Amino acid sequence: MSPAVFSHGDLRLYLLSLLAEAPQHGYGIIQSLTDRTGGTYTPSAGTIYPRLAKLEEEGLVSKTVDGRTTIYAITDAGRAELASREGDLAGIEAGLTDSVRLIANEVRQSVQEAMKSLRADLASAEHDERSAAKSRPRAASDDARIISREELHRADAVVNAFRARVRTDLRTHVAKGGSLPASVVSELEDGLDAAAHAVTRALDTLRPGH
């Protein structure tokens, strides 16, 4: 079971700190929490809106309705509450970083276990395939088919491992407060696109008639 991201009562104070930066609508608050935890925590509307309503009842938050959108903003009383609990907020920030790190480690461990299981499955499938091949007359096409199937499994494992590694590294980086410029994402996109084209070109040269 994953560790709790916020202890009892901490989310209430953290919501005030988010609204102190800028007024937001409910979805924006949920998205901010998701971004600041590197995607490891996405609260439901049923978690956020009752707390916002309670903060409004206490006079710490106000809301205005713009068409179909409700915007929440911190009040002077809310800022005073936040200032009086500055030390508590610092502790929440530190705890949040630790929680996100634990969750990221769990994700990494889960990926490693999945890869271990995948390798075991591939080894078992390879053994079964070789056993079946021994029971029938072998032809060059059979050998080629077996090798192709094994290499396809290997390629799948490589792609999945790369995706898991990069995703975990990105989320952990953002969770620790690191920035993620658009240029980095564009560079990743270009690199993956170039790799995909290289694979396509290589496969084209292996097709009959080339």
TrEMBL record:
For this protein, the record's CDD domains field holds: HTH_ARSR
Task: Please list where the region (Disordered) is annotated.
Answer: 122-142
Instruction: Specify the Transcription regulator PadR N-terminal domain's residue ranges.
Output: 15-83
Biased composition, class Basic and acidic residues, residue ranges? 122-132
Query: InterPro entries from the entry?
Result: ArsR-like_HTH, Tscrpt_reg_PadR_N, WH-like_DNA-bd_sf, WH_DNA-bd_sf
Taken from the record, one Pfam family name reads PadR
| Official protein name in the record | PadR family transcriptional regulator
